[in-house]
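Recall the central idea of this unit: under ordinary conditions, the amino acid sequence of a chain determines the structure it adopts. In this exercise we apply that idea directly, starting from the sequence alone.
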Amino acid sequence: MTNSASLLLGYYGDDFTGSTDALESLAVAGVKTVLFTRPPTADDLAMHPGLQAFGIAGRTRAMTPADAEGTLRLAFEAFREADVGLVHYKVCSTFDSSPTVGSIGRVMEVGLDTFGESIVPILVGAPSLGRHCVFGNLFARYGAKRERYRLDRHPSVSRHPITPMTEADLRKHLSLQTSLPVGLIDVVSLGLPCDRLLETYEQTCALMERGGVLIDLVDDSQLVAVGRLLLAGERRFVVGSSGVESALCAAWTERGILKAAAPMTPPGDVGPIIVVCGSCSPVTGEQIRHAVADGFAEVILSPNALDVGEINNALMNSVGAVSHALGNGRSVVLHTDADHRVPHTPAEDARLGTTIGHILRLALQRRPVKRVVIAGGDTSGRVANTLGISALEMIAPLTRGAPLCVATAPNARVNGLQLVFKGGQIGPPDFFSRVRNGLADSQ
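Accordingly, the structure predicted from this sequence is:
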């Protein structure tokens, strides 16, 4: 990291829920951070005095490599102009990607080219989310359960409808997306004394003319050591999960750049909420069932609502059902029915997210609420775009990886709205009820 940089970090999230996950990691450590929905201008940044980091929420996880490259070059240029010390391409902590959709390998190539680097560190483990990288293999928790699964045996991620993870060895997985070699700093090396670890890391980098170095991460006790590696050599580009932010904050705290942050307090109950769900993972499906059993009104989105066109009868019927339930003082969960729940192409997923966004926008016009949950990584970006959200800031923790945020938007119904963007694997079964009640997991 260059010492002259005015901002510690800039990050680009490959989907919306992942972007708020990184926002949380920074905010709880005391880093003043704003998440934008498009590359910010100098005037946008100037509106936030004392800013230390900023993110750009993207949708490249659902893009082809060619489309993603064009999008990323614009975003990366914004980071260069803002003089950030380090640029992070933030990926999902389950690394779901493929050579044709959401290619992380192609992103590595674009990043190295843009920032004139030869080596990109790769950090995927995120212990606070139940993601653990051991000898280059990724293991992930399933929902709120304690058991960790090797990624290719994970009950949900291995069956993703668009980018199923059939390989847990991340270096082997990346070899299908890029010809760049990828070295490894394994869990044994992380136990070396600081000087020896840094020496091992630089030797691993030196063995490659151009490539990546994957760094294991198993538990929080390794965060400081890993953070030192990410800051070594003044490299400007890194790829990984929100474990990157956690490791960097640990190292910045060790160096005295950050001080202990005051704890954030969840704001409690604010009345009925709206929950909207896109393509539902089994974890989200369990959360829907729990919410309905706990008194949420259930609105099932008809497949006919996805017909071409912004407004149709089926869509308006959903808007009416949501508004009616809110008028009776009930929180609402809207989702697709089980037979049509999971889109099988990026185009279908985009259409679903946009439709849900229209329903939510129209429902807010009829019956304003103060808090909304949007479940689904790809869905979240489409909904946020439809609502016209320009920026987000975190206001409170709820469950790790899905913080409570407040929106900035030109629409008065959306500006100041409290929002939670939840990924498919995130949260306990009672998560929607906890959001309604404004309670963190520890409560």
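The two ends are 38 Å apart (CA to CA).
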